[in-house]
Fold this protein.
Amino acid sequence: AFSWNVSEDQIGVLEIENKVPNDARYVQTVTVSPNTWYNVSGWGRAERVGQGTMGLYLSVMGTFHNSRDLRGTVTWQPLGFWVKTGNLETSLDIACRLGGYSSLNSGKGWCTGISVTAAGTPNPDSRFVYGKLEQSSGNTKFWVQAAAVLVALGSLLLLWRYIRPPSQEESS
C-alpha cells in the first residue's frame, strides 16, 4: 500500500506498507547532467520492518546504488548516497524502497525530503559512494613541474642557437 500525506507544516511524506514480504518502491525520474557527481539524500523512518533482509532505503533503480537501510522500528533517520552519472546519462530513476531485489521484506516505512543535488565530489571518507573518485597521486605535481622545466630549457636552447652570432668555425 502506498500513500502520500502532507503534514500540518506542509511537508510531504511518502508511506509504503508491505503487509507480506515484498519489494515495494515509489520511483521518480530526475533529470541530471552527464559525468557529474550527485548527492542523493532524504529522511526515512521504519516500523516493524524485518531484520533479515533489506529494509527501507533510497536507491537508483536498475543498479545496486543505494543508501543504508533502516530495519526494525526507528524514528526519522538521514539516508543518502553519492552517485556519478555516466558520459551519456541524463536521468536517474530514484526510489524510496521497502525490501529489495531478492530481498523481500514487510513492515511500514516513510520517506521525506528527498533531494538529488549536483554537489562537487564526495569526501574520500564518505560511505555509499558509487562512481570512480579521481585520485591524484603525489607524483603528478612532480611530472608537471618536470615537463615545464624541459619546455623552458628547450625554448632557451632554441633562442640561444638562433640569436647568438655564429662563430668563425661555424661560418667556414
In short: The radius of gyration is 28 Å. The chain has a mean pLDDT of 88. Residues 139-163 form the longest helix (25 residues).
